Amino acid sequence: MRIVAALVGLVACTEAAASVWPIPALLTNGNSTTSIQNTLVLSSNTTAAVMKDALSRYTAIIAKEALTPPADYKLARPSAAGKLGSLAIKVGSSDETLSLETDESYTLDVPVSGEAVLSAKTVYGALRGLETFSQLIVSYGGSRFITGTPVHIEDQPVLAHRGVMLDTARNYYPVADIKRTLDAMSYNKLNVFHWHIVDAQSWPVESRSYPGLQLNSSYAADMRYSYSDVQGVISYAQARGIRVIPEFDMPGHMYVVGETYPELVSCLNKQPGWDQYAAEPPSGQLNIAKPAAAEFAMGLIGEYAKLFTDKVFHIGGDEVNRKCWEEDPDVKAYLAGNSSATVETLLADFYAKVHGAVEGKERVGMSWEETLFHSEYTPPKDTIIQTWIDEQSIPKTVAKGYRSVASPAASYYLDCGHGSWLTNHDGGSWCDPFKTWMHIYNFDPWANVTDSAQRKLIIGAEVALWSEQSDTVTLDKYMWPRAAAMAETAWSGKTDASGHVRTTGEVAQRLHNQRFRMVGRGIGAEPLQPLWCARNPGGCFLPTS
Amino acid sequence: MRIVAALVGLVACTEAAASVWPIPALLTNGNSTTSIQNTLVLSSNTTAAVMKDALSRYTAIIAKEALTPPADYKLARPSAAGKLGSLAIKVGSSDETLSLETDESYTLDVPVSGEAVLSAKTVYGALRGLETFSQLIVSYGGSRFITGTPVHIEDQPVLAHRGVMLDTARNYYPVADIKRTLDAMSYNKLNVFHWHIVDAQSWPVESRSYPGLQLNSSYAADMRYSYSDVQGVISYAQARGIRVIPEFDMPGHMYVVGETYPELVSCLNKQPGWDQYAAEPPSGQLNIAKPAAAEFAMGLIGEYAKLFTDKVFHIGGDEVNRKCWEEDPDVKAYLAGNSSATVETLLADFYAKVHGAVEGKERVGMSWEETLFHSEYTPPKDTIIQTWIDEQSIPKTVAKGYRSVASPAASYYLDCGHGSWLTNHDGGSWCDPFKTWMHIYNFDPWANVTDSAQRKLIIGAEVALWSEQSDTVTLDKYMWPRAAAMAETAWSGKTDASGHVRTTGEVAQRLHNQRFRMVGRGIGAEPLQPLWCARNPGGCFLPTS
């Protein structure tokens, strides 16, 4: 009875706090209801392009917002104590630089009547506040209101890097899919699009240094990303306060390079025994015994560090297979002639070159955890380590003094739970089961990290959609609203101001609201439950006593 | 090496047999290639409405067919030895009766040049042949061909009932979704739409006998099925050779009736301890101690046996909870006054009344397996038993002399593998894991049934999509192409003519073709693999040695 009783308050009416996802750091509100004038005007004290674009975008979003929270489906149109005619946005600077250090804080005041005021130090903080403002608006009887006015919000994120990774190589996604994903990310205050743009299976992105890569290994002429496409994605993202971090995963996952440069790649598509040489077919790794392979890798970094403008550049480094090299004739010949060399020293030399190339381009390197934990190489101290294999890799990373972005497969891999995709295999996959939104929500990136300096090294969280079993048809359903569950952890942390760890039971109605809001905005987010449950808070709990 | 070598033949060219899903009983073909004239004319010797509609439908489908099998992505436009200008359809009867007994056989001959001929005893056999004909057509270099001509096909289904169940009560699906599902079913020669139209959570369908059911318990005014909608679905289905079997699930799953008639329902929405009274919330069963509840049930059957025209009428009977009644005051009072009565005799009496009502309307009853195995009632011998709990229920059903439709949850429940949907539950669900297409394909409905008379009692197979975690946003990806995997078992059986059990490795390329064909026809079927795998047959096998 306890849980249901605690939630009864939500049944009566959805108040401001129940509408915003992720939940703001501080929200106080009154008991009045304010109607939104159809002529609501958004204005700002800056003419920065990002803000101009956002005013136009949010004017349209707000004009169309028709969300009635499902739990309020029987509520009649309320009587309003006042009218809101405008939102004034005050930004401290018109600088449009977007980076890991960008201040995203904002304050928002919505009075019972008159003009709401949004204040932020940066245009990107203002974007976050605009999203919050748009989420305060609910619809009853065809009219729009903000309930629980006056509302006062002070908000800022807990983590600076709040990301979504999309693999566009196993299967291709049109640019429109990526832009829709960026829209959806902005609705959840996510700020990093980690573009796992190439992999063993295809090379969709244009290369001007190595044009054969795209020409030979994109899936089709209409399954490519041109320079112009990439620049369009980056500017679309920046307009939403989202950084684009590209990943060129090396030295593993490089079969695709062998389609153009077979001489640079070891264990090229070993069949049928690919499982001895790679995590999945087709096998192939850059040949670490060949200087030309490292030069190729450095050339790629040189080219793409110009195309991709973010300070952070991801060079992969996951799932490297030793046997691939141990059996390679060139590697064997090199080792035979260099008695102090081993596969491990060759790999460390390779990493030194590619991380050096990243530094040479004044970029900060980012890599999967294996580079730190499963190689003899010591990455530069500013390298951002993305952990995925083990949740304990997070405390281990920060204990070594590195910054960590948490992407544990056991909690944050959105593709898991779909069983095997190997043609002849009637069985599961290594990362089953499916990660429910509750499981994602309950993951704590700070678990087992108590030292405050180490906790600060946990700079981010990222969900990942690997695309072996996903393409344009399935993208939204895999991504949403589960990425939103992570987004609240990343923006709001695990606890409220009193230190109470939020539970899925407490936040479910807000997430229902967010799911239906996203569907209303054109995102194909999957349903969490029968609509009956969304309408009857507390009605679909597993009894715990 | 064995498996890959065996598949190499598929790489060279996709021949007719590689294009048709489900695979025909007999297909012989030559080595020629025939081009399809843009002016291809379909004609028939009957003016039956079903055929007239099909000619127009398939003319459009064929005109738009642009499937290039993924494994053929590098093939140039072939040179054709002849041209196909027409398809003549010869039907033995213009009778449009559609039932479990309808003959769906056909023969199809496609010559190298000239006119193809499709012959069938019934218009529905002709529909199946038309679908096969449309699937022979592939596109290279923007032109359409049939490869491997002349083609001769003799085909008929192994199972008479090849179904898809959709639950439209946990979450609602617009009529357009149902019609699109019927389209997709026709592309896979499926012939039964089992409409699980109401359940505890909502009552979307109009009732003229009990109008409050829909008015009070549909989710919204725009989330309803009117009589006209239902009639539209039935006629749309019939035009595609698909029967519509409605299910009104009783006496369990009836909370929804209690929203209008609380006096007819026991254990109405027990909270928070619903798990003592029902498989999922909200709890509620028709009160078997009350004659009015049985009369209500018989009234429903009376009404809907008029609206739904198929001979078979499904009355549910699954997941009945004894405690719900044992604690019901009316049941307790009745039992106190009737010393020979028990909950089991009351339930058997209830079943006798509702099965009697079905017989009274000259319908054949269909029910979930519990009625046969977990009650003291003996259903009429013509009742079709749908098994789901245990795969061994199929041999048990036919050993008792009943006809069986196989829907084992462990293989055929399409919603499984999505984890718990209970608000506060960070865990799995009873029917995890996800059923991959390979798992579905490998299920054998005839396992452990050797007696030939008993094997004939296995009349059908049905996949089921329960909608706790699905709605209009996710329908297609849950359903397709996995329902197609079942469709091949149901149409073609488990073995080829030589008795060889087909393996997923052998059929994967055809299923890729079918998936891309369906996407081309507007069905959001999910991808099976990276496109690289679809293009490189044998490249994504799990090594078995």
TrEMBL record, chains A, B:
It is an enzyme of class 3 (hydrolase). Residues 1-18 form the signal peptide. Residues 160-493 form the Glycoside hydrolase family 20 catalytic domain. Its EC number is 3.2.1.52. GO terms for molecular function: beta-N-acetylhexosaminidase activity; isomerase activity. One of its GO terms (biological process) is carbohydrate metabolic process. The active site is at residue 319. It catalyses: Hydrolysis of terminal non-reducing N-acetyl-D-hexosamine residues in N-acetyl-beta-D-hexosaminides. Residues 20-136 form the Beta-hexosaminidase eukaryotic type N-terminal domain. Coiled coil: none annotated. It holds the Pfam family Glyco_hydro_20. The keyword Isomerase applies. Belongs to the glycosyl hydrolase 20 family. This is Beta-hexosaminidase.
